[in-house]
Amino acid sequence: MTPGAASAPLLVGDACLGCLYCDQGRRPKQWSDEAIELLEAFADLAAVSIENHRLYTQVLTEKSKLEATMGAVTDALLIYDADGHILLANEPFRQLFDVREWIQDLTVQDLLTLVHEHAHLGLLGGIDAEEDLFDLKPAEIEIGLPPHSLQRRGQAVFDKSGKPLAYVVTFHDVTEEQQAERVRSEILASVSHELRTPLTSIKGFMQIFERRFKRNEALASSQELSLVLQQVEHLNTLVNDLLDAAHWPGSKLYLQRSWVHISRLVAESATRCSRETGRITNIDDQSRGALAFWDREKVQQALYSLLSNAVKYSEDHTTVLVSCVLDEDRVRISVRDQGIGLNAEQAEHIFDAFYRADNSTTRRTNGLGLGLYLCRRIAEAHDGSVHVHSQPGVGSEFILILPGIQRDPLNVLPPAMSEELLSTE
Length: 425
Ligand code: ADP
Prior knowledge:
By secondary structure, the protein is an alpha+beta fold. The chain contains twelve helices and 15 strands.
């Protein structure tokens, strides 16, 4: 140390933060006792200031970390201190409880009053006036418009001596989970019911046949056998639809394309529908021998769904008309019925998986609500679409629009197939 210089340690508790160094310059004098005391007092003050600054920076860093964490939390979260003063409320909390005010200056009691006021104004749906929303007890709460189901959880934070420092309350939105669970149970119930109906009928017939076999009687009439076959066919369709619906979501449908004669495809679907339902389907075919590059089986499946629905959702004495019109390189296949029809809200959902419009006919008839969903997926896989125009009590028209047609079939087919086509025109 140079002559006339002095230093004092910067102490905070047992820790030494550094040292205060003082130099008297070119004309050093002896340090007096008062000067040394002053230097030490100054060093103590400097040490406290440095420590305070360090703590303040640390608090700011911790606060930003906490805010960043709270920003990432999707649950609504509220933190209040032991006196009920609000310390933090994240954005999901403000949105959920519709509080835009500066709530950090409020107490939990003020906040509760505010939320109840909002509920009273109809902003939050019904909230039980007695309910202490920000209590720590786990509970399930309904709030908001439309109502959300929230799972509330609370936790106290204690200091070293075990005294409560703060309380943290979170609200986890379980509305979607509950809805998905409800839909899952409904689908399971409907699938079990749909599968059980044909199975019960087949089992009944088999028991009769067994009894007859034991008595050496004639086993079955052809009418009985065709009834059993019908039920087996129905079961087969249900299982296939379920498998398709399970495999197709999200994935692009795999198509096995080939040249398809549109008139024949429409006629075959109409014939199958008449055979299986006993109702005649009228055909207005203007496709003039055009071919299309489609997945024959899948388009037939889609068209059959539209035709069988037209029969299923209309009275026996009414007409079902399937028409087929070319529109540039697309074909419009329309299936029109004079049945029960659909209202606008129902029409919006009928192409969703497992949707069945709620009416007395639907309740009386079998179905999983998959036919139209699969029909839409098939149309989209062909870069086409399916639409509905409907009026309750008047009837419905379903229109399948599919591209990929070739008006001049003889140009795209090998000679052998062209000859076959000409011979069947
Ligand atoms: P499903 O007929 O097996 O219930 P779909 O997916 O084929 O399933 O049809 C979904 C719903 O759309 C049906 O439950 C029915 O309510 C309604 N729907 C379909 N086609 C018609 C139609 N032609 N007329 C009236 N409602 C229909």
